[in-house]
Structure formats: C-alpha cells, structure tokens
C-alpha cells in the first residue's frame, strides 16, 4: 500500500526548498559573524536571530514531508558567497537573497497548483506570507541605512542603527493588518 501522499515532483521540490532554507540560515550566520567582527553587535544579534528563523523554516518543511509519508533528503549546503563590504551592502545582499527565496517558494506553489495538491498549496501559503514579511523587513533595513547616510553612513548614525537592531523584533506588521487609525 502506498502511504506517500506527495508526488515525486512535489517531494523533490520540497526537499530542494528545505536546502534553500538551510542555505539562507548559513548566509545569515556568515553576515552576522561579519557584522560582529566589524564591531556591529546589534546588527549581528539581529542576523544571528534571523539565521535561527531560517533554520525553523527548514524544519517546518522537513516535518511536512515526513507528515505526508514522503522521504526527506538531506543535501550539502553551499558555502555562502563573499562577505559584505559595508552595512549597506550587507542589507542589499539580504534583500536580494530574500527575493530569490520568494521566487523559489513561488515555484513550489505553482507546482502544487498544477498538480492540484491542495494540502501542499495550503502549507506553502504560510511561506508566501512569511516572504512578504521578510522582504518588507529587508526593505525597512535598506531605508534605515539610506537615512543614516547609505554607503557613507558612519559614527553616530551607524551606532544608533546598530543599537536599534539589537532590540528590533523579527516580525513586521503587514499591510493587511493595518487600518486608517493605525497605519
Ligand atoms: Fe528568509 O525566509 Fe525562509 O522562507
């Protein structure tokens, strides 16, 4: 009796996405280590926390694959590319990598739609929303560094940004939760 509720294609796509989340976690770890070495402890703290979030995303997919009676494939994680060259460059790289992750997630969503696998489609909606949050968060970081002086940001402005990120929550409020009274 076949108890595997995922098609071969969906199983492969979810396993790939799991590795992408693990890779994202390593990227955040490397940027966090870079920030700490440069003396930006607040930014490092924020990025270390985010590395953990990406690992949680990986675990969600791993658990889902198992729950559906399919097989998990643990693959090698590529080493993160070069370190950031500045705080602005760090935030740009973060934004870029989140957008790439969004595209990867959309591919899984599209496949589940084509295969009419509504359980996977439904499961993936959590990730669609999460990516909107993560892109918003990354865009907010880019805005902040721009206000602090962009590539030329230094001294007090960078210090204030670093302190702020240490306290910054990992989530942002999305448009659908906003109102006229509370924009
Ligand atoms: Fe940065 O996001 Fe996972 O999915």
Topology, please?
Layout: H1 8-37, H2 41-67, H3 87-114, H4 118-147, H5 155-167
Helix pairs in contact: 1-2, 1-3, 2-5, 3-4
The structure holds hydroxy diiron-OXO moiety.
The CATH first-level class comes to Mainly Alpha
What name does the CATH topology carry? Ferritin
- Number of domain units: 1
Strand content: under 5%
The number of distinct helices, counting runs of at least 4 residues, comes to: 5
The helix fraction, in percent, is: 55-70%
Main beta-sheet strand count, sense and barrel state: none
Rg result: 18 Å
CATH H-level homologous superfamily name = Ferritin, core subunit, four-helix bundle
Describe, in plain words, how this protein is organized in 3D:
By secondary structure, the chain is an all-alpha fold. The chain has one domain (8-172): Ferritin, core subunit, four-helix bundle (Ferritin, Up-down Bundle), CATH 1.20.1260. Helix content is 70%, strand content 0%. The chain contains five helices and no strands. Helix 2 (41-67) packs parallel to helix 5 (155-167). It is globular, with a radius of gyration of 18 Å. The mean pLDDT is 94. The site of hydroxy diiron-OXO moiety has 10 residues, from helix 1, helix 2, helix 3 and helix 4.
